């Protein structure tokens, strides 16, 4: 029993540290996954807070994992981990049984797990953590209290510092579809011989104050426009295929709405592309980008902006007297392409040659 207890403690501690570090490499990824759940649950009012939630959850995973390994305040952390694994198991279980979430983001984009795999992992962890909780009084601290506190303080500082650095720059390890060397045009194609997902269209209507859900083959016999009020429709996954291109929804439109994706991705010249998801209230990076634009235009290298916040971005650049083409892009695609807001790319014929985060824009001048 003693050996099993310590083996479980090591497995749980290491797994939580590993999970936290993988997600700390890209806290925005977990933030977007939270938004996906909130959108399914109609809780989009929390979307603006998901990055804060993400940073705190990731830091807690790492801190809790270290605390479990060294046995510090084990009674407290065993309860906290139990509550956390109950929450995670609920999320992954919801993803499996509802079919509305395909991936739960447990290990970020570097190690992708399906909803089923994440759910089974959480069930195993639930059993291990439950066992640790029941035997929590048997776990004693490895180090003195002062040394343990120092270790936890250093862990806490490192957890937050790592995430803040990534948000200012870019992930340490790029596991995204737009990493350097990728051909965006090729990434938009489904793999040869792949099988598409099998989905059904589900409708949600309101009748007599209650939501009623059905698919296209099971309309209620009394269905009519006067009794039913449309709420939403969504595609429910029945059988998962493998026809998923790594790059989805990458469309570049002119301000007038004309698709110019292929024209830009086929341009033989080296081109600088700034991706801006959302123009925040602070935009200290604009001066750096202005300097970059001036140098690149002197070199004869095209510079363009792709954004899902067109009006605000166009106004700021106009106010700063930065004259260049601005295009509209899909918000989801830009979220994936630009983990730092903004992110500057150097591309040629659709191939990503290099990219820089918000604090590194001027680095592009030397390249």
Short description:
The chain has three domains: 2-168, no CATH class; 198-239, no CATH class; 248-366, Glutaredoxin.
Estimated share of beta-strand residues: 15-25%
Distance between the termini: 60 Å
Poorly predicted runs are none
Helical percentage:
40-55%
Counted beta strands: 9
Tally of DSSP helical segments: 11
- Tally of domains: 3
Multimerization status? single chain
Q: What structural class should be given to the helix and strand makeup?
A: alpha+beta
Q: Strand arrangement, largest sheet?
A: 4-7-6-5-8-9
Q: What is the H-and-E element order?
A: HHHHHHHEEEEHEHEHEHEE
How would a crystallographer describe the biggest sheet?
6 strands, mixed
What is the 3D shape? globular
Mean pLDDT: 90
Radius of gyration: 24 Å
Task: List its salient traits.
367 residues; alpha+beta; Glutaredoxin; 3 domains; 6-stranded mixed β-sheet; 3-stranded antiparallel β-sheet; 11 helices; 46% helix; 16% strand; globular
Question: Could you characterize what this model shows?
Answer:
It is built from eleven helices and nine strands. The protein has 367 residues and is an alpha+beta fold. The protein has three domains: 2-168, no CATH class; 198-239, no CATH class; 248-366, Glutaredoxin (3-Layer(aba) Sandwich). A six-stranded mixed β-sheet has the order 4-7-6-5-8-9. A three-stranded antiparallel β-sheet has the order 2-1-3, with no helix packed on it.
């Amino acid at each position: 029993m003693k050996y099993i207890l310590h083996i479980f403690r090591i497995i749980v501690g290491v797994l939580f540290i590993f999970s936290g570090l993988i997600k700390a490499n890209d806290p925005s990824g977990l933030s977007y996954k939270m938004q996906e759940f909130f959108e399914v649950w109609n809780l989009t009012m929390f979307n603006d807070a998901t990055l804060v939630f993400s940073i705190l959850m990731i830091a807690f995973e790492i801190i809790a994992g270290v605390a479990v390994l060294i046995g510090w305040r084990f009674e407290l952390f065993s309860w906290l981990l139990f509550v956390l694994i109950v929450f995670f198991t609920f999320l992954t279980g919801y993803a499996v049984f509802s079919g509305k979430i395909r991936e739960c983001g447990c290990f970020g984009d570097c190690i992708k797990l399906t909803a089923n795999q994440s759910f089974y992992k959480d069930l195993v962890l639930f059993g291990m953590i439950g066992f640790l909780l029941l035997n929590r009084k048997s776990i004693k601290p490895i180090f003195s209290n002062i040394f343990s506190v120092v270790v936890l303080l250093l862990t806490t500082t490192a957890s937050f510092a790592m995430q803040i650095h990534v948000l200012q720059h870019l992930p340490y390890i790029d596991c995204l579809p737009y990493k350097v060397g990728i051909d965006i045009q090729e990434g938009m194609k489904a793999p040869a011989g792949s099988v598409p997902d099998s989905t059904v269209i589900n409708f949600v209507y309101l009748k007599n104050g209650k939501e009623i859900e059905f698919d296209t083959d099971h309309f209620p016999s009394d269905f009519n426009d006067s009794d039913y009020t449309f709420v939403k429709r969504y595609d429910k996954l029945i059988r998962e295929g493998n026809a998923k291109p790594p790059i989805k929804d990458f469309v570049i439109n002119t301000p007038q709405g004309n698709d110019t994706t292929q024209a830009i991705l086929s341009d033989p010249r080296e081109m600088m592309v700034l991706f801006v998801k959302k123009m925040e209230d602070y935009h200290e990076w604009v001066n750096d980008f202005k300097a970059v634009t001036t140098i690149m235009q002197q070199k004869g290298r095209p510079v363009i902006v792709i954004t899902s916040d067109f009006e605000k971005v166009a106004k700021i650049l106009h106010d700063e007297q930065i004259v260049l083409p601005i295009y509209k892009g899909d918000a989801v695609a830009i979220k994936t392409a630009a983990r730092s807001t903004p992110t500057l790319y150097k591309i040629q014929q659709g191939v990503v040659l290099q990219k820089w985060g918000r604090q590194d824009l001027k680095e592009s001048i030397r390249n």
